[in-house]
Batch of 2 targets.
Target 1
Amino acid sequence: MNIELAANFSYILSAGLFIFGLKMLGSPATARRGNLLSSLGMLIAVVAGLTASGIVSYEYIIGGVILGSIIGALAARLVAMTSMPEMVALFNGSGGVASLLVGWATLYLAGNDTATAVLSTVGPATGISTFKAFTAVLAILIGGVTFTGSLIAYGKLSETIGSAAVVFTGQRLVNSLILAGLIGSGVMFCQQPAVDSQWLYIVLGLSLVLGVMVVIPIGGADMPVVISLLNSYSGIAACAAGFAINNNILIVAGSLVGAAGIILTNIMCKAMNRSLANVLFSGFGAVKQGKAIEGEVNPISVEDAYYILEAANNVCFVPGYGMAVAQAQHVVKELGEILEENGCEVSYAIHPVAGRMPGHMNVLLAEADVPYEQLVEMDDINPRIENVDVAIVIGANDVVNPSAREDEDSPIWGMPIINVDQARTVFILKRSMASGFSGVDNPLFFGENSRMLFGDAKVSISGVIAEFS
Amino acid sequence: MEVVFLTFILVLSIFLGFELISKVPATLHTPLMSGANAISGITLAGAFLSAGAVGNEAAVILGTAAVTFATINVAGGYLVTDRMLGMFKSKTGGGK
């Protein structure tokens, strides 16, 4: 049998495995097998890719695969669960740069390739068809934006660089100019495609710059949106590379990932009641401030917290990014177990954008062995929040801020929140209260039924646990 | 016709992707994302062609770099997803 035909049939098989794998990722019970299926699909695609005609020598391929596997495997084993968002950002970036490189390299190969040269007009004397030039430019552009964008996202998530939004006057103008420059030089390149064309280098440089520019104005709390979006880009870049080298499996797999990323992005945006454009173009810090709130908070001691929890029948934990920072997930789970033994119903309510990436809190709690049946979504807990005796807010702020419901001037007005203020009692674990009460824009802290448990979340919860024993 | 054919595949896959993903519960958003991210390393299958084109130095250099980065994406992505999913446990039965 013709080996190329065999390779193409294997691609169909691996596309099927990707699809089934993604489908099985939809349920916690089957997700792990789904991931295995998807990796099997990848293995088949990779082996089929090795049979491509035109490969003269395998030494560099083997070298690259070994090096990449070692780095990837080490990174995947060693990373702490709390650092997962930045790890995903890095993997994303390496996928992006790979697509960029494939797009670029394909221009050097174009002379040997006849498949696409036939179907489109052949550029003068170079052998690079306009279609190939166009798709290669797309792969370079999207891959480049994904690469540097992911690096900046990594920097922000790991706090290597400040996580605040970087906004300056004329930012939109600068970005528009970069984009216009990119389109212009892309068009110039496609008209006279050559590997040593200056336009190619301009496209390359500008796309790397654009990646930086689009991510710097986005603040830390909006990171779930950015990560999903970059994930989508990396898929689209693979897709463009697939067009450039005329490879079906790249197109199928790339567009599956692209679609997945866009859906997640959409879910994240909805959970913040903001449009994608609003997230991308307006630094969150720059928007108007809501009403200043005045009032007094009710602090509570660890001992009193214990007495209340001891009597509670229904406790709901509401974790946020602060839980990740304090590494408090294990003690939270321990307290949850103690409460259950005490005859109390325990649940963990998770807002879609809690943390720094979609599903961030779920992963941390899973790490601490919380069974996934106890993790409830916002829409499930809100209707029965009035039956909750104690809601324990750990390092979450915006996602439980009642201003989103009540204060039309608030920057987060309209965002769906977990209505912990409607629970019978709310414990808020917080490091400290900022000096001076005015300006603190979370009225939850001043609520009648709110009790502030100041201090490191991990230490406070350990204290409560100690009271129980 | 080839372009039309490829675009056909593109459009159908996008619709399929939307259908598949829109039903995933929030609990699994992180593994879903990193699992999908691993799939985007599929570029690897395309990078071989350049990395193996000995005699064409520039293509080999770019291709080998692409192979390395794509493998990081694939290997790291799948392993980290597996590691995460291994932690999701049901109350009734441990594991998987």
Target 2
Amino acid sequence: MSRIERRFAALREEGRAGLVTYLTAGDPDRGTSSRLFAGLSAAGADLIEIGMPFSDPMADGAAIQQAGQRALKRGMTLRRTLAMVRELRCADDATPIVLMGYYNPIYRYGPEAFARDAVSAGVDGLIVVDLPPEEDAELTGPARATGLDLIRLATPTSDDQRLPRIVEGASGFIYYVAIAGITGTRSADPASIANAVDRLRRFTRLPIAVGFGIRTPEQAAAVARAADAAAVGSSLVQRLALNLDAQGRAKPGLVDAVLADVRALAAGIRSARVG
Amino acid sequence: MQVPNTFCGGPDDRGHFGNYGGRFVAETLMPLVLRVEAAYAEARSDPSFQAELDYYLNHYVGRPSPLYFAERLTRHFGGAKLYFKRDELNHTGAHKINNCLGQVLLARRMGRRRIIAETGAGQHGVATATACALFDLPCIVYMGATDIERQKPNVFRMKLLGAEVVPVHSGTATLKDAMNEALRDWVARVDDTFYVIGTVAGPHPYPMMVRDFQSVIGRETRSQLELAEGRLPDTLVACIGGGSNALGLFYPFLDEPSVAMIGVEAAGHGIETRLHAASLTGGAPGVLHGNRTYLLQNEDGQIRDAHSISAGLDYPGIGPEHAWLHEMGRVQYVSITDREALEAFQLASRLEGIIPALEPAHALAQVAKIAPSLPRDHLIVMNMCGRGDKDIFAVADHLGVRL
């Protein structure tokens, strides 16, 4: 059983949904970023999503675009992202780690070498935003061979004809993008999210995480009533950005401020439903 | 590498030209991209669609554009016989309008009421805004904040035409970021919006569709040269940013083995300086903006900024069909520096009374390199794909002239 499967099984036992937190690797600098990732699990994150910075993140809004720019400016690379995961893995062998980003850095690294190095660093899954099922064979092959989950995205525009194609060969969980739009902009209403999750469940038995537009503990709780996990990214990244000085350096309270938000989100989710 | 029976058969049904092209977009966009593909396939086989496009190309754009024997330049070079395909005489001053009209007619056919586009130099933005004014459609043009500063006249033109120009501050605030922003807009407005891409790049079917719309350039050239000389050209030369004017000229000749083709990329300050826009000469395969192609990028797969004196060539990628033609060896790709292009710019102005855009000035600089040593019966056709009015200020600046 993979870490992702074990974690979702444990959540089912507990009768609650999970919290997936997103932060960009190396934002605002490697030291601060490492301390953030190291604190997430204790603050209540059930799955850790780590953004791989990319110069041209076409599915992301301003907050995550700027996070990537900050990280790249400080010399973040895909290799260093993997090194950061390796370090994190030494301290925590249970929490699933999913890398999220765009295909070009992986393509440049070499899909096979990347899958191999990612697994050996302790990565459990990959979300590659610009790699739809039509194009992802070159990564699913190496990912499957190494035991890495390639997590597929479903969206409000994925209709009943398309969903079978998306869930076929998917593993880990399905990431439902709650809005037709980019990260950190609008929020979907809880009723439409619940409908969408019900519809997805007709096509797959995999756990369903919902992301995009979830900012507050209340919104996370609402999603937690319908889905298996709620993913929060932009609002955490914005909290981080609010704790930078004029030169873009971390102010002393940054890590605590972000982790306090994570604790509030985790509390929201834990209050949502009882098995 | 195996040579195919035809160079005109691509792309395959998944939008691949060999290893290049494809549909590398977010899942939210996939259904839209598939819908554009289906709608275009239907339109392409509908004679009434082509007839409507032809009507506007003839009566509104002013096609066919002349094929002009550049006699004084031919004498000046003292070798090959040089013709210009004069797409700079089109309405709006460049080849871009050929494609914009086609896509906007397709958008109308699909019932899409809101048009978005990206632009670098502003030529594609102006052409899209023009087509939208003609058909009474709201038009939003994304343009890098840096480019808005460099291309004020075109920004004003777009506004006069009724378009909204949205400055893009993200990333490096240039064309690639404008394209990112247009894709972000499209993701958020999936129900009513059509994205008019300006070059032979982006997710399938765009590279094929834009090529088809621009191929009118090559088809006209073929029949015009047949009339003038009674035969095929020997060499075709065109500049390449994304590569739409070049592919438009080349495509109808790809299966004529006697016709040599040269695509001219922008070498900026020189390939060795890294300040250039030559994706094939100085880049590597990668995935960006919906397709796999050659890209300017670093070791980590981060996209590098392009540099060229010509804003229209200032793009870190190239159309996927060019990437494939490059690897097949069917088209030769070379590069020309800012300095060489500036010289050619002045040469055409002085000797032919044609002020070229800086983009085709790159093509002419390549012609200047090869024409002198070619025999007098060697026929070169160069695509004069845009006129230079927009570049007057930039050129004056580079020549140290204060206007």
